[in-house]
């Protein structure tokens, strides 16, 4: 008897719910948290002292993470109501921020965990940056900021370590957020949080490459320190891009062998010129080569900012294409 | 005594052999639950599928709705508690708590949720009146098994209206019920069991898709013979 096995029939359908806005949210969330993570790591693990670079970087990190959050809210329905004059609807978002888990006992939602991580990262990171305000260019000219910062100076170390852990959480969260969709093979992938974490760290190092290249410092000591940090982050990024390539390979390997829907996504993603040419080639392999050349040949340092910009471009494209290829595998025929 | 106090374990059975694709279920649901048909958004849908393998062709209709999973991905994704489960295990949405992040929509493996947009709310209020509109604010909407009906001892609107009884309603705590027996015997099965979502909607696979191969030569020769005659 030849027949069609009903249970083997599948339908593949792209998701249209989370688009560019959420990709920006994930990208800026990862980038901002990575900038904050690297600032605290340089200060408290490697014991480097560049208050201006670290404070301003941390403030930028906090700003980026929260600015990215706006794009998530813009994607929500409450925004529609807000635009139509129902201004109180927007405050529903605070339910997520301040932990509806307390009221309903559901501690699983990653948006809620992420919102809390972002909130703690923002508060702790802000206080940590302010605790160095007295030695930070421009900030040290604002009297009340210095006064507030001085209150938190005694606990600067504690704030730094807590910020570091919350930043790590924010970076990984961007991957966990997508993992809640069991029928989307490109999202419910065990490697996604790791991949996003590596990619976020890579974009974070790109920021420090740009800073140390363009703002080399006024005094000799700062110049020397920034050159040292610049060189370190370049090598760190070379290692991170290598790891990212490995993670991408493992991601596709699992996608291909683990799911029927995964095979479908595998073929579509790897035949998309935007993903292969834009992300894999321009956003990953080219900057990897450029960074390697710049690290080895001192006269070609001009390649550093170009590589850093490409890494940032690649970081966004990775998130955009992962969202774009969020293809459902539905258990019915079409 | 024990059975009286026991909560019902409601389940839904769909026999794919008897669905004729009349879409009466969709119409009944739309009227009962004020779903935005003008935007082609429905709580229940009937897909049409044509199965082809070689010369064998099978066509059938595939009704689908929220599976009311007991291991519920949408519930775990909802950050505000808008998605919740009743004591009987029916998955519901509290529209006042929904912020429209759509985490539940992406998490649902069965495409059972949709956006009830601001425009839909306005249009619904125009059609049904402000007072009688059951959709007051934008939210994510989904099938509730017609909770307002089943708690009064009635069947869901789509089951009540189905002309071929392809949609069946039962309480699995009543093993004497012939519909419950379809589930308990394993004849009706849930979709995508491998996901571990433990749905409460069960399907009886279409037997017509297991078609015997047709000898096309026989068909051609019969046709030729017919023409010659």
Low-pLDDT segments, ≥5 res of chain B: none
Q: Could you list the spans of chain A in which at least 5 consecutive residues all have pLDDT below 50?
A: 1-5
Strand content of chain A: under 5%
Supply the CATH class of chain B: Alpha Beta
- Cross-sheet strand order for the largest sheet of chain B: 8-1-9
Mean pLDDT of chain B: 88
Q: Output the strand order for the largest sheet of chain A.
A: 1-2
The helical percent of chain B reads: 25-40%
End-to-end Cα distance of chain A: 24 Å
Judging by the overall fold, what is the CATH architecture of chain A? Up-down Bundle
How does the major sheet of chain A shape up? 2 strands, antiparallel
- Gross morphology of chain A: globular
Number of domains of chain A: 1
Classification by helices and strands of chain A: mainly alpha
Give the number of helices of chain B. 9
Average residue-wise pLDDT of chain A: 90
Stated plainly, the CATH topology of chain B is called Alpha-Beta Plaits
Assign a percent range to the helix content of chain A: over 70%
Taking the alpha carbons of the first and last residues of chain B, their distance comes to: 74 Å
């Amino acid at each position: 008897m030849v027949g069609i096995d009903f249970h083997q029939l599948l339908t593949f359908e792209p998701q249209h719910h989370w688009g560019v806005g959420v990709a920006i949210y994930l990208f800026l969330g990862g980038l901002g948290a990575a900038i904050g993570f690297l600032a605290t790591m340089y200060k408290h693990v490697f014991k480097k002292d560049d208050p201006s670079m670290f404070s301003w970087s941390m403030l930028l990190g906090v700003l980026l993470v929260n600015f990215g959050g706006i794009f998530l809210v813009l994607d929500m329905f409450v925004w529609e109501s807000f635009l139509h004059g129902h201004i109180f609807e927007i405050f529903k978002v605070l339910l997520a921020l301040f932990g509806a888990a307390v009221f309903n006992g559901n501690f699983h939602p990653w948006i809620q965990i992420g919102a809390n991580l972002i909130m703690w990262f923002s508060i702790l990171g802000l206080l940590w940056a302010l605790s160095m305000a007295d030695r930070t260019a421009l900030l040290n000219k604002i009297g009340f900021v210095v006064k507030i910062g001085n209150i938190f100076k005694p606990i600067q170390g504690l704030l730094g370590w807590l910020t570091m852990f919350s930043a790590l959480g924010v970076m990984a969260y961007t991957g966990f957020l997508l993992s809640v969709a069991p029928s989307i093979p490109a999202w419910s992938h065990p490697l996604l949080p790791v991949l996003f974490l590596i990619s976020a760290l890579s974009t974070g190092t790109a920021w420090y490459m740009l800073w140390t290249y363009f703002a080399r410092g006024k005094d000799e000591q700062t110049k020397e320190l920034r050159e040292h940090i610049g060189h370190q982050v370049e090598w760190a990024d070379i290692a991170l891009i290598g790891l990212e390539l490995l993670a991408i390979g493992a991601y596709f390997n699992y996608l291909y062998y683990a799911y029927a829907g995964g095979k479908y996504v595998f073929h579509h993603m790897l035949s998309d010129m935007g993903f292969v040419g834009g992300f894999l080639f321009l956003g990953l392999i080219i900057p990897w080569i450029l960074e390697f050349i710049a690290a080895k040949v001192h006269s070609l340092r001009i390649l550093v900012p170009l590589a850093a910009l490409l890494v940032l471009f690649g970081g966004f494209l990775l998130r955009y294409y992962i969202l774009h290829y969020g293809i459902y595998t539905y258990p019915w025929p079409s | 005594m024990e059975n009286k106090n026991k909560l019902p374990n409601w389940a839904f059975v769909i026999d794919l052999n008897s669905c004729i694709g009349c879409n009466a279920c969709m119409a009944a649901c739309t009227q009962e639950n004020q779903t935005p048909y003008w935007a082609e958004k429905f709580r229940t849908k009937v897909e049409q599928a044509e199965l082809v393998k070689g010369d064998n062709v099978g066509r059938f209709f595939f009704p689908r709705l929220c599976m009311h999973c007991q291991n519920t991905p949408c519930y775990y994704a909802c950050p505000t508690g808008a998605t919740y489960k009743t004591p009987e295990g029916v998955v519901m949405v509290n529209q006042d708590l929904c912020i429209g992040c759509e985490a539940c929509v992406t998490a649902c493996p069965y495409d059972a949720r949709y956006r009830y947009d601001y425009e839909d709310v306005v249009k619904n209020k125009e059609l049904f009146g402000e007072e009688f509109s059951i959709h007051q604010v934008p939210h994510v909407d989904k099938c509730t098994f017609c909770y307002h009906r089943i708690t009064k001892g009635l069947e869901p609107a789509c089951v009540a209206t189905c002309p071929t009884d392809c949609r069946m309603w039962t309480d699995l705590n009543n093993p004497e019920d012939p519909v419950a027996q379809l589930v308990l015997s394993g004849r009706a099965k849930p979709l995508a069991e491998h996901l571990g979502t433990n749905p409460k909607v069960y399907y009886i696979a279409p037997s017509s898709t297991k078609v015997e191969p047709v000898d096309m030569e026989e068909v051609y020769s019969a046709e030729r013979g017919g023409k010659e005659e």
